[in-house]
Amino acid sequence: MKVFKFGGASVKDASGIKNLANIVSNEKDNLVIVVSAFGKTTNALEKLLKSWIAGDKDYTEHLEDIYSYHSKVSDELFPSANSAKSNLDISFTRLKEYLATAEKSEYDYEYDQVVSYGEIWSTLIVAEYLKMSGLKSEWVDIRDNLVTDDRYRDANILWSESSNRIKTVFDFKRFTIYVTQGFIGGTVTGISTTLGREGSDFTAAILANILDAECVVVWKDVPGVLNADPKWLTDARKLEEMSYREAVEMTFSGAKVIHPKTIKPLHNKNIPLYVKSFLAPEENGTLITAEPTLKEIMPVFIRKEKQILFSILPKDFSFVMVDNLSRIFHSFLIHGIKVNLVEASAVSIDVCVDDDRPKVDILLADLKNEYSAIYNENVEMLSVRHYTPEAIERITKGRDILLEQRTRSTVRFVVRQ
């Protein structure tokens, strides 16, 4: 059994879904297919959510645009009335009623209730198209099976309960293919949650771990894992193989090719991960495994944009280490802010985090009585794995460097955008 994951770019239109069906039809093994929301649907739902929370009635227009997009894809795939279209209409009606009647709660909770619909809609259409194509497939609502806590927008998996439910449902007794959603889950009481932005890769890894999959294949619009974002460095090269550790280091530094939490469930059971192109499925892609055959070590360039660099100082000029450090990082933890880089001195600590302004403002308010904070907005973090002087020069030349940090294998710079 294998787990295939298809991202939003691979299913952004009818031709993409037909391509998915072609890839799947050539596979002889049992499959779990994890699908993300179509195209930029998650972004569109986030825009709708912000409009709704702000009390802007235009949110209904955003919803109508999203509905029209999905209806168009469905109409192009199916020649006549079908269950996908009717189920799609029912699901959109549920969201419309929720937005019209719900008493608004805190943002993270509402995010998960609204944005989670994107994956439901995409999988309803994909599952129905596979059935129409003659494939023995079944749609599964992962929210009933992947059980999480109630940490909204970054839920933690309840592994024991999830394992029991998933093994029962994904049993391959009646179907050879199951189509389900990435990125989302549900609490024990059935409330929708999400696993963090781009979390569909993580979903695929969780299912692979629980079901003892032969491998996971992540299908993307690139030939594999590249040593740089080709939109940033146009001469980016493909990495043929890489280790689990290397993948973790890259994702921690900000590489977007896979979700940071993806590797651990695979590493725990030594399940290989392939990153392949859905545009050229016959090509090898990149293999991520415990013991890769490394033919060449090349610099890997990673850019993490939309960052904030903090300098946090105790107001009484006490040493920042020990008690102060514990207090500061506990505040980061409880407010759900992930630290991308840390640099400590005697009386201050520099921290680089994602520019999630609502959470950052709450954090600063929590710390203001004991600490003063200065920060630089509009910065980005540039990292080079396996760096050389030439590689460093390439990405820092002419840049205003605010902070530099080096280890044996990695160098990071925080620079102004």
Please provide a written account of the structure.
- There is one protein chain.
- This protein has 417 residues and is α/β, with parallel strands linked by helices.
- The chain folds into 2 domains: 2-289, Carbamate kinase (3-Layer(aba) Sandwich); 300-416, VC0802-like, CATH 3.30.2130.10.
- 38% of the residues lie in helices and 23% in strands.
- The protein has helices spanning 14-25, 41-53, 59-77, 83-101, 107-115, 117-132, 159-169, 200-211, 244-253, 263-268, 323-334, 357-367, 389-396, and strands at 2-6, 31-35, 137-139, 177-181, 184-186, 192-194, 215-220, 241-243, 273-277, 286-289, 300-314, 339-344, 349-354, 371-385, 401-406, 410-416.
- Helix 1 (14-25) links the parallel strand 1 and strand 2.
- Helix 2 crosses helix 5 (107-115), helix 3 packs antiparallel against helix 4 and helix 3 (59-77) runs parallel beside helix 6 (117-132).
- The longest helix has 19 residues, at 59-77.
- It is globular and about 70 Å long.
- It starts with a strand and ends with a strand.
- The mean pLDDT is 94.
